[in-house]
Design brief:
The complex is a heterodimer. Chain A has 2 domains: 4-21 and 252-295; 34-244, Pyruvate Kinase, Chain: A, domain 1 (3-Layer(aba) Sandwich). Chain A is 60% helix and 12% strand. Chain A contains 6 helices and 6 strands. In chain A, a hairpin with a 5-residue loop joins strand 4 (168-176) and strand 5. By secondary structure, chain B is α+β, with helices and mostly antiparallel strands. Chain B has 2 domains: 4-86, F0F1 ATP synthase delta/epsilon subunit, N-terminal (ATP Synthase, domain 1, Sandwich), CATH 2.60.15; 90-132, ATP synthase delta/epsilon subunit, C-terminal domain (Single alpha-helices involved in coiled-coils or other helix-helix interfaces, Up-down Bundle). Helices cover 28% and strands 43% of the residues of chain B. Chain B has 2 helices and 10 strands; from the N terminus they run E-E-E-E-E-E-E-E-E-E-H-H. Chain B has helices spanning 91-106, 111-132; strands at residues 4-10, 13-20, 22-27, 30-34, 41-45, 48-55, 58-64, 67-72, 75-80, 83-84. In chain B, the strands form 2 sheets. In chain B, strands 2-1-9-8-5 form a 5-stranded mixed sheet, with no helix packed on it. A 5-stranded antiparallel sheet of chain B has the order 4-3-6-7-10, covered by helices on one side. Classes of the chains: A alpha/beta, B alpha+beta. Chain A binds chain B through residues 38, 41-42, 44-45, 48-49, 52, 55-56, 147, 151-152, 155-156, 159, 209-215, 219-220, 222-224, 227, 230-231, 234, and chain B through 9-14, 27-29, 32, 39-46, 66-68, 70, 72-73, 77, 79, 81-82, 112, 115-116. Strand 6 of chain A pairs parallel with strand 5 (41-45) of chain B.
Chain lengths: 296, 138
Amino acid sequence: MANIREIQTRINSVKDTMKITNAMYMISSSKMKQAKKKLADTEPYFYGLQGEISRILRHVPDIEHPYFDLRENIPSGERKIGSIVITADKGLAGAYNHNIIKLEEELLNGPGEHKLFVVGELGRHYFSKHEVEIDTNFQYTVQKPTMHRARNIASAILDKFKQGELDEVYMIYTRMENSVQSDAEKVKLLPLERASFSHMIMPLSIHREEIELYPSAESVMDSIIPNYITGMIYGCLVEAYASEHNARMMAMQAATDSAESIIKELSTLYNRARQAAITQEITEVCSGANAQKRKK
Amino acid sequence: MDTFGLKIIASDRVFYEGRCRKLILPAPDGEMGILANHENMVIAINVGDARMEVEEDSWVDVAVGAGFAEIVNNRVTVLVDTAERPEEIDVRRAKEAKERAEEQMRQKQSIQEYYRTQASLARAMNRLKVSQGKRWNL
């Protein structure tokens, strides 16, 4: 049995760790509340945007636009595939980062030339140790997602897509199903696919309303699509931020719980050791006294 | 007078939802007025000053960012990245943003950076314009 002092130090160190995990739990839960509010505020815009675009595409099916260009003439081995990977700035969030990294590695194993745009410190560190091309100018943090940051990311990505430096763009982030479950998810940002917008197949006999695009279809698309991409990125950043803090909150809760059970176990051990020591002392005193008695 | 359903959605909130009598939007080639029973249409919106008449003779100014408006079946949906009332605008912040953008414009930068600065300058100037309520009354 370990000696009393050793157990005592162990208990104290576990207690200190528990203080930290408990504090992190509090921080994450308050940050998650903010993130959830932000998420609820953007949702009408996010879904409105998707709905409107699908509607426009339904009514005006024959739009030729560079953002819809699938570039099918490029063979799959030579396609330049960019992915925006959203990880956390630090670990201590359970499986949150690992799920994202696993999903990204699946994509990296596929054909094509890959280029990564990593948002978040942890992912940047991880992928810099592997042989993948990372855009080094792409230094964004995941803390406090803002429209401004989403706009910067979107303009950088759209520019690269237009210049042919990227043929496909994916976004890998964590979507929050509900407060218990969140899943890593891959979304195709560019080129826009018509199929992903039109969920509904309209029979030919139904009358379609005519919608005029003003001043022209192209200028409307020019102003809608960058907005749509920005909105998508912003939505994803907010989702990821909320799920990060949710994951961290749960991880810290689990850590605090297990610290509590360890402390409980250790204090039982400690008490046993203390009792044993006392018993031994008493036996020693008694036997000493007995020996003295017999001497007389 | 006839009214139409109007919904203005900004990226951070639903700005307005309800009936409206007249609406004026900043399109890329000038302002565009919308009355009830307008033809179905999708309009691109620039950074600028939109106005809506909710009740007779009471116009509400709205500083809007880039986006678009969709008119279908007498319902208008405006989706813009920002929408603010004049009294909500932080004049000092807008002034600072304008100065910052002007400073950046003077420096050498890539075309992409130039466009970005230009866009933020336009947003800042629009905010200032709407907040000061300066208008050429005809």
